[in-house]
Amino acid sequence: KVVQIKKSCLRSSTKQLFPDLQDLLKSIVSRMKKAVEDDVFIPLYPKSAVENKTSPHSKFQERQFWSGLKLFRNILLWNGLLTDDTLQELGLGKLLNRYLIIALLNATPGPDVVKKCNQVAACLPEKWFENSAMRTSIPQLENFIQFLLQSAHKLSRSEFRDEVEEIILILVKIKALNQAESFIGEHHLDHLKSLIKED
């Protein structure tokens, strides 16, 4: 349905849409807000309770994270029909920063966490980062960026050093270039400088 509505509206801006469609979009935004507020729940357990991946607490938190990420992806699929401000408020402000980040912060740094971060980044509309002059990302991603940097710092001192490169690539994708460069410089990771391409 999302694709069908998008195809029917590609030639018009949101302001030029028929009143019925504008009402439909307002209704969709209202339902999205309700879904985020009523349907998303990320439990906050002690880390000791979720370190064992087979424990009931860990399994439940995993299910809740992926359920929340599915809603996150579905919200951002409306890119092009809903305004960037609306999507960033709902997807980033209300869902990522209030819920998904909790699950990430409560997880043990490692490949699983990096995989989740990659999935989050993959949902973000590319047009938000098309400006070649961007050196810092959009403000609503600051918490996510700080989490990425903290994770990279911890992983750089562990056996999961390959995951640090993955995190740098995520930072580059979301145009957090200044932070990526600073991290590489501070940790003397000269071999990763090539990941940051100057436009």
TrEMBL record:
Main localization, broad class: nucleus
GO cellular component: nucleus
The keyword Calcium appears for this protein: no
Protein name per Swiss-Prot or TrEMBL: GCFC2 isoform 7
Gene Ontology biological process terms, A to Z: mRNA splicing, via spliceosome
InterPro entries: GCFC2-like
Subcellular location: Nucleus
Gene Ontology MF annotations: DNA binding
Organism: Pan troglodytes
Source domain of life: Eukaryota
Keyword annotations: Nucleus
